[in-house]
Amino acid sequence: MSEIRENEVKSISGIPFLLFMLVLLAAGLYLFGQMLGGAESKGARVAWVIGGFVSFGVWITFLGGLYKVEPNQSAVLSLFGKYVGTVRTPGLRLNNPFYTKKKISLRVRNFESGKLKVNELEGSPIEIAAIVVWEVNDSAEAVFNVDDYESFVQIQSEAAIRAMATSYPYDQHGDEISLRSHPAEISERLRHEIQDRLAKAGINVIESRISHLAYSPEIAGAMLQRQQAGAIIAARKKIVEGAVGMVEDALESLKAKDIIELDDERKATMVSNLLVVLCSDKATQPVVNTGSLY
Question: How many domains is the chain partitioned into structurally?
């Protein structure tokens, strides 16, 4: 399939020709008025009729060549099915009256996908939605390379979202990129994925970002418990690491200041007691030992 690229063509300002057409219209009405008023000779009446029809014919021909281009809009011109060029100059323009003119909006638009249910990299079902900000970059490609470029944007964007979601896990494990932990990287990857699919339609993707991300309802409860368990384990690990450091500092401080001499058994008992106090999630109750350890 041969791709058509945009080729900008010149157009003539339509304001002078609009004034000229008004003059032609007035001339045609005058000639028909003279005919109806009755000329003295038959030849004169025929001349009035021919003049009136010529004036109206020229007027109608020029009227078909006039068209309006709004700001941030283009007009794609074709002649009997062959692409001629694109006009981006705003205002009232004039070209060949036989050109077919299709208006294309060049304004920035956005598309928000619905909630798509897909399986992420690890196979867990998730719900994901995204917002895509886009604009038409090549009017000719948008008109001639695809059937309906707006529908093409919607379908291909959703396909790109599905493909991207299956390439990453929902949660982060180690240093890998995940959907939830790296929104900037995921948004950029999604933009490239969509741009690759829409380039043939003359679409430029300005921005894309995730607007909704969650586990599917059927596994949301189990995954929430999994996340909570992971958070508890991570917190406990931090607490234990801190407690071990504090116990080590306490033993070294006692030894350095020569406050008390502890043998291995007393050290073990002290370490056990300190770890219980420091790692417990509730307030500990002290037990006073009045006897000997031995």
Answer: 3
Bridging pattern class, strands 91-94 and 100-105: unpaired
Which residues are within 8 A (CB) of 284 and not within 5 positions of it... i.e. 6 or more apart? 276, 277
- Do the Cβ atoms of 248 and 240 come closer than 8 Å? no
For residue 252, being part of any structural domain is answered with: yes
The reported pTM is 0.66
| Model confidence pLDDT, tens digit, residues 1-34 | 567 888 888 888 877 777 777 776 776 666 666 6
**Coil, helix or strand at residue 168:** coil
Same domain, residue pair 187 and 122? yes
Among residues 56, 78, 105, the one where a domain terminates is 105
For residue range 191-227, what is the model confidence (pLDDT) as tens digits?
999 999 999 999 999 999 999 998 887 765 666 666 6
Q: Is 185 within the bounds of a domain?
A: yes
Query: Same domain for 64 and 46?
Result: yes
At residue 173, the 3 state secondary structure works out as coil
Output phi, psi for 128, to 5 deg.
-140, 145
